[in-house]
Hints:
Elements: E1 2-9, E2 20-22, E3 27-32, E4 34-43, H1 49-56, E5 58-66, E6 86-93, H2 100-106, E7 115-118, E8 122-127, H3 133-146, H4 152-160, E9 166-172, E10 177-188, E11 197-201, E12 209-217, E13 225-235, E14 242-249, E15 252-263, E16 272-278, E17 288-297, E18 300-301, H5 310-316, E19 318-326, E20 341-348, H6 350-357, E21 364-369, E22 371-372, E23 383-389, E24 392-398, E25 425-432, E26 441-447, H7 451-481, H8 483-494
Parallel strand pairs: 1-12, 15-25
Antiparallel strand pairs: 1-4, 2-3, 3-11, 4-10, 5-6, 5-9, 6-8, 7-8, 9-10, 12-13, 13-14, 15-16, 16-21, 17-20, 17-24, 18-22, 19-20, 23-26, 24-25
Helix pairs in contact: 1-2, 3-4
Membrane topology: Single-pass membrane protein; Single-pass type III membrane protein
Pathway: Glycolipid biosynthesis; glycosylphosphatidylinositol-anchor biosynthesis
Protein name: Protein PBN1
Amino acid sequence: MKRRVTFITPPGKEIPDDALRLTKDGLGVKDLKAIREERFTFEYDELPWFAKLLVGETRELYIRFDNGKDYTPGWKGPFSSRLPPGVHAFVVPKEDSELKQLEMFLGSSSDIQSVSTTYDRFTKVYASDPTATKLHLLLDNIAARICKGVDRSCRDDIVNLGNAPSVDLTYDPTSKVLDITAAWTTYGSGTTPNEGWKTYIMPYTPTGRVEVGIFSHDETAEEEEISLRGQIAVVGEDEEFKPTLFAFPARHHSRSNIFTADFQRPTGLHPKLEVTLALGGKSPGDTCSLNAYFAIPQPFFVDPYQLEDTSLLKSLGITALIALEGETDLEAPGYEMKKWGSTVVLELDTQHYFDNRVKDHLPMEFTLPLHLRYLEPHSSKSNQTATLPWPTVFWACYSEEWDKMSASPFDRRMLGYEEYFPEHTYFYHLTPQLINRTQAVSKLEVPVLVSKDGHLIEQATIGIIAIGFIWVVAKTLLSLLGVGNKQAVVHQKKE
Length: 495
């Protein structure tokens, strides 16, 4: 097992003298306000049986957990990539593998066939639950095996990864290692934003390796680069920090711009998600396009034919539909759907914003039209809460500097939307602004048939149909018998 701990302190803030205490046994951290990343690397033989089964049915595996909380706007540094809240998995299954372990791990809310294969080999899998209950179970199992007979802090540190806003699991079949990476992306202690980190970092075994880096962002970096200066140490080997400075190109960056989203009211059965963006009046470059990536769970769905109407798209603030994958059946109820939902990538209409709204200092807006499926009847509830994750909004910018991209030690691969853009693309992400909410999601109540009333409704419907049928038959018989014609003749004679 290997461990890498990275702290990134706010720019321009000096680290207090008593915040770090490095000895030959470990590193004490006290009241350090910093963004934090933890990465644990486990050899295949170290994994518990369930984890071996999970990675053993795949040739490549990437699982991303994002809870939709704790965003630092304007952050310029690593850990800038974004995903909609939820669980996102990208997997290359082994031949004839049905991915049963992955399905069991993600739970019943996902489906292995949820979105079609991409790159001709990757299969996308999604789940709506961003609390990642199964992640905690996996971490518990790994900790129980890895930390057996060593200091309790080993188990606590591994299990605590599940509390991070963002957690990645990556399995590399070539090196046969599983990386679990967790990131806390606000300047706080992870649980209390106004307090700093307080922890003790040490090797759990004599052969264990723990690398620690404490950095701050260097503002002199190039536009497409990230530059960090600070100090590093190998805990258990070094008794003093070593100063360091390095810069590297990064594919993902964060902009100082923010956005919010919510449903237009009243919602009805055809809700519209309105997204408001504060762009600041300019784009990162001439080759950039503004885009939005949605992961849309049941019972929501989009109408692909509606999104092909160019005049409608223009009125919604959208230039084009780039991609739509997943469930698009327009008639089926939610309980007959076999797939988790769908994903949508949109190119947004920035030209209208720059031509008409910038001069008046107005924000940009775009709207995604949605529809709701009929849900399965419930024994007592007349409505059910439906949750829609906010999109990931980003500028996609073409660059000639792609040959340098492999140098970044922090970039993430397989996020679900990169494949829709040229390889030579940088991404500049906008930050969700959580106003009067704790998570980047919007919710609404969906009407549901109460099953105890269903029998009465069914009988009433049958009765109405029967009465209508009898009436039609009676009128037909009377017509055939000439009753109606005789009455008409009598009426004419009276006249």
